[in-house]
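Example record for the data management plan.
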Amino acid sequence: MEFLVTGAAGFIGMHVAARLLQAGHNVTGIDNLNDYYDVRLKQARLDVLKPYSNFRFFKMDLADREKMNELFEGGKFERVIHLAAQAGVRYSLENPHAYIQSNIVGFTNILEGCRSVPVNHLVYASSSSVYGANRKLPFSVQDNVDHPISLYAARKKSNELMAHAYSHLFQIPTTGLRFFTVYGPWGRPDMAIFSFTKAILQDKPIEVFNHGKMQRDFTYIDDVVEGVLQVADRPPAPDAKGTARDGNPSAAPYRLYNIGNHQPVELMKVIEVLEKCLGKTARKKRELGAGQSQRLNRHDGDRMIDRIEGAAQLIELGLCLLQPGFGVLGQGAEAARLLGEEDSFAFGLPVALRKPVLQCGNLGVPVV
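Corresponding structural encoding:
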C-alpha cells in the first residue's frame, strides 16, 4: 500500500514510518527539517529509514502549495498519516506566524491533496491540549473544547474542524488522534523527560511546580504507533443516521480518539525514576502552582480503551505503569560523536519509563 507520512523526520513520524516499512508498505516521507530543535537529530532519524528500499524522502514545506500539489499528483497515495506540525505550546507564543503557516495553511494543503487524489483515509495528529480550560475530568472526545488556552491548542482544534468539513463535503474519511504526552526513544529534546535528564546530568535545578503533585498521562511511543496503525487500517464509514458511537451527531466519515494512558503519574514520580536510573539526585527548585499545569491530565477510560471501528477487540492504547529500568538507545554512541559529549543526552536518554505488554481490554492479551 502507498502511504504518505508527513513529519517523517519527527519523533512519532519516524517510528510510524519504520513500522510501515517493516510491514512492506511503500512510504513517502516529507519534512521541512526546520531548526526548532537540533536538525542533526532529525537527520539521524532519517538515517534509520533511508536503508529501506521502499522509502523515499522529500524535504518539503507543507505551506508550499505548488510542491504539495505536485507531491499528491505524482504520489497516488492510498493513505495519508499527517504528523508534521510546528511543535511546542510555549513556542506558539513566541512565533505565532510559524504556526499559522505550518499548521493551518499546511493542513489546508494536506486536505486539498487528499481531495484531489483522493485517498481512502487521512489520519492526523491532534492533541490533548484541545481540552484547554475544561474542568470536567476525565477528558472525553464528547467534551466541548471551545476554550483553548494556547494558540497551539486552538490550531489543533481548528484542524479537527477543517477535517470534519472536508469529510462532510467530499466524503474523505478522516480520523483525528488526540495524543497525551508521548515519550520514548528518539523523542524531542524539548520535552520534559529530556530536559529533566539534561538538568540532572548537568547538576542544574529542575523547576517543580505545585510540590510535584501535577499529574499527566505518559504514553509510550510503541503504543502510540500501534494506535495510529490500528486506526489507519479502519477508515470511518459515513453514518447516515448520525449516531456515531463517540457521540458525534455528524453523518460524515469522521472520528476522533484519545490516545493515552488513563493512569496519570505525578511529576515527582517521574523525577524519582530518572534519579534512580541516572544514579544522581536532582536539584529541585520548588515553585508555586502553575495554573493549568496543576490540573490532572487524563482522559475517559471509555475513550482511551476504544473499540476502533471494525476491530474485534478492545485495545488499550497506552502503558499501565511508569516503571524503572535503564535502556540507552543503540544510536547513543554515534549520537555522542555527532553532537559532542555535552549533547549526547538527546539520543542516549535513559528510556527509564518502561511499559508492559500492550493489552487488549483488561484481558492482558498481547496485540499482534
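Summary line stored alongside the record: The longest strand covers residues 121-127.
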